[in-house]
Structures are given as structure tokens and as C-alpha cells.
Specification:
Protein name: Sporulation protein SpoOM
Largest sheet: 6 strands, mixed
Helix content: 10-25%
Shape: elongated
Number of strands: 14
Number of helices: 4
Oligomer: single chain
Number of domains: 2
InterPro entries: Spore_0_M
């Protein structure tokens, strides 16, 4: 084991590499994600302190009236205890990890990926990145479906920087933006935004933004100063699902 090879490995040349192979590329939020991590030794023996999987997503952050695409960690999972990998040796480590129920849905510009990293002392840490598609869980799907049943069309989905006052556990919140195209709210609302603040399998806390359509000079002034927007917090449980359409209709109608 030459000194020169050790130096090269310390800066990532000829060092260990990592490759994560997922069982499938698409998951529902809350699923168990399975796969295996393949670690391939480089030109010298190296100490692997840990292997970690981190689920990331993108979100829009505003600063000085400009928008930037940033990223945030949703979950980090450590796979192993320290071990050594010899030169040209290969180790395969199976894993399973539960995706959070509030993992963002990959719709529009939202991206979700799994980053695999090797923590190697005194060396560059190799990484691997695997993009995955995320579909909504049953509760989220039920809410979005019932909003559409009220005559709304989903126009845009985006993860945006979350104001501290709304209490999101992430630095972002995913917004589902709807516009009324038919039904009781057509011509009365400009748009409706639905945000999921926290979720379990049996319950979801929502924040709904109702944006009323401007009427007359007073309405236009209210719209100019964003006084036409109302925020409503509500909790939806699995028991609410059969009557969810009527519940949402009544809540939205209060602010039209």
C-alpha cells in the first residue's frame, strides 16, 4: 500500500465508491423504501465510519425580491457501524427506510432524491444520488380529489419557503394551487391553495388559502393590499373522508 495511493485516496482519487440500487423508482408517501448499497473499495484499504441515506427535495426561497431554488433534507438514515473495506473489495448492504407521510409529491417542478454518502475519515466522502417519484398517500389523495370534485382544477404544485408562523416542520411547505372552473365557486374565487402542515395515517392538518375575486373598487383595493386572502386551518381525519366534500364546501363558502 503506497503512500502515494493513500494521498490520492484522501482526495477522492482511487478511493472507495458507492452505488445505491433502489427496489423501484416510484413510491407512495409513507411507503417503506428498500434497496441495497454497494460499496466498492478503491486502490487502498479505507475505514468507512458510516453510510447514510438522506432524502432531499427542492423548494423555492425568496431573498431580496428574487427567487432561488434551494434544497432541504426530509429524512436522514444511518445504515451501519464503522467497518473497513479492502482494496478492490465489494460490500453489499441491504436497507429499508420508511418515507415520511409528508414527503412532497413530485408534481410540477418538485424533485425528490435519495443521496447516499460514505463518511470516510481524512478523505473525500463519496456520494451517489438517485431521483424517485412520490405519489400522494390515501389521505392526501382524498383531499385533493374532493377539492377537484367541487369544480377546482389543479393549476400548480410547488414547494415554497414556509413562514415561521405556520409551524411547518420543514423549511418549506408544499402548496397545491387550484382555480375554480365550474361548480359553486366559479366566478367567486380567484384561486384556492391547499397546504398540508402535518400528517399521520389517520389525520392531516391543512392550511387553506381562500383568494376571493375582486368586486368593485373596494374589492380591487383589497386585492391590491392582499386583504382578499383568508387563511383557514382545519384538521381532516379518516372518519371525515366519506363526508369530506360537504365539509370542504361549507368551510370555503364561509369566506366567499
Amino acid at each position: 500500500m503506497s503512500f502515494f495511493n493513500k494521498v490520492l485516496a484522501s482526495i477522492g482519487i482511487g478511493g472507495a465508491k458507492v452505488d445505491t440500487k433502489l427496489e423501484k423508482p416510484e413510491y407512495t408517501a409513507g411507503d417503506i423504501m428498500k434497496g441495497q448499497v454497494e460499496v466498492c473499495g478503491g486502490s487502498v484499504e479505507q475505514q468507512i465510519d458510516s453510510i447514510y441515506l438522506t432524502v432531499y427535495t427542492t423548494f423555492i426561497r425568496e431573498s431580496d425580491d428574487k427567487k432561488y431554488t434551494d434544497y432541504a433534507s426530509i429524512k436522514k438514515h444511518k445504515l451501519n457501524e464503522p467497518f473497513k473495506i479492502g482494496a478492490n473489495e465489494t460490500k453489499v448492504i441491504p436497507f429499508s427506510m420508511e418515507l415520511p407521510l409528508d414527503t412532497p409529491i413530485t408534481y410540477g417542478n418538485t424533485r425528490v432524491w435519495v443521496a447516499t454518502g460514505l463518511d470516510i475519515k481524512n478523505a473525500a466522502d463519496p456520494e451517489d444520488k438517485d431521483y424517485i417519484e412520490i405519489r400522494p398517500d390515501k389521505m392526501t389523495a382524498a383531499v385533493l380529489k374532493e377539492v377537484e370534485q367541487l369544480g377546482f382544477r389543479l393549476r400548480q404544485v410547488e414547494c415554497e419557503q414556509a413562514p415561521k408562523r405556520i409551524g411547518s416542520r420543514f423549511p418549506f411547505v408544499q402548496e397545491f394551487e387550484f382555480v375554480p372552473t365550474s361548480g359553486p365557486f366559479r366566478g367567486k374565487l380567484d384561486e384556492l391553495e391547499v397546504m398540508f402542515l402535518s400528517q399521520t395515517k389517520e389525520k392531516a392538518e391543512l392550511l387553506i388559502q381562500v383568494d376571493r375575486k375582486a368586486k368593485g373598487i373596494g374589492g380591487f383595493l383589497a386585492e391590491a393590499f392582499e386583504m382578499d386572502e383568508t387563511f383557514v386551518r382545519l384538521t381532516v381525519t379518516s372518519q371525515d373522508v366519506p363526508k369530506l366534500n360537504e365539509k370542504l364546501k361549507q368551510i370555503i363558502a364561509k369566506y366567499v
